[in-house]
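User: I've been trying to design a sequence by hand for this structure and keep getting stuck. Would you show me what you'd pick, starting by listing the structure so we're on the same page?

Assistant: Good idea, let's start from the same input. This is the structure you sent:
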């Protein structure tokens, strides 16, 4: 684990050495030590409450070679389903497409190393809470993911940056830092979502 102290005083912990690829890290665990210090680890802590933060989605890799301004879009995939469900929950359909693109590259059978499933990469607990019986069913997954995204947008007064940061790193991390968390992976994700949303809006 490396400790990085940024010029603004912000401290970051990572187990990714400079020569390593970011994709080797799929999950961090955030917790408080006995003296109240905020700590991060790539090993699950024991005996304390912790929050899992995953960074293994398609658009989370900070060393991604994808050009997000030119990468082909999936304009027609699941089009009627996305449009209908997005409209039902008052979420921009282009944002839904951007999240699906970023999370799974429109692969309905996608499964991350930490258990996120389907097009919108729902964690099993989240899927269960949303009533998604089969996360690999495209319509169920999109409906659950859009309902979750709609809830985040409502929570953050329609601020897409905060909503997508919370979709990636969790609402707890957004609350902890009072904005987009200083995780390189989450910041990359939020920026790429914004690019994809703009491009899908133009494509529509």
């Amino acid at each position: 684990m490396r400790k990085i102290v940024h010029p603004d005083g912000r401290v970051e912990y990572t187990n990714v050495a400079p020569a390593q690829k970011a994709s080797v890290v799929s999950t961090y665990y955030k917790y408080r030590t006995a003296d109240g210090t905020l700590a991060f680890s790539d090993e699950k802590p024991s005996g304390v409450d912790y929050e899992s933060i995953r960074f293994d989605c398609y658009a989370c890799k900070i060393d991604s070679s994808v050009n997000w301004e030119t990468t082909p879009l999936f304009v027609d995939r699941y089009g009627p389903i996305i449009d209908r469900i997005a409209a039902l929950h008052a979420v921009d359909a282009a944002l839904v497409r951007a999240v699906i693109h970023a999370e799974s590259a429109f692969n309905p059978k996608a499964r991350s190393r930490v258990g996120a499933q389907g097009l919108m990469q729902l964690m099993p607990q989240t899927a269960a809470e949303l009533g998604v019986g089969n996360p690999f069913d495209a319509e169920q997954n999109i409906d659950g993911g859009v309902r979750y995204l709609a809830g985040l947008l409502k929570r953050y007064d329609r601020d897409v940056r905060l909503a997508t940061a919370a979709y990636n790193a969790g609402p707890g991390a957004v609350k902890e830092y009072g904005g987009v968390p200083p995780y390189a992976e989450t910041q990359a994700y939020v920026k790429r979502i914004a690019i994809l949303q703009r491009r899908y809006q133009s494509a529509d």
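That's my pick for every position. To get oriented when you compare it with your attempt: The helical segments are 79-88, 93-104, 124-129, 138-155, 160-169, 171-177, 184-203. Confidence is low (pLDDT under 50) at residues 1-9, 14-26.
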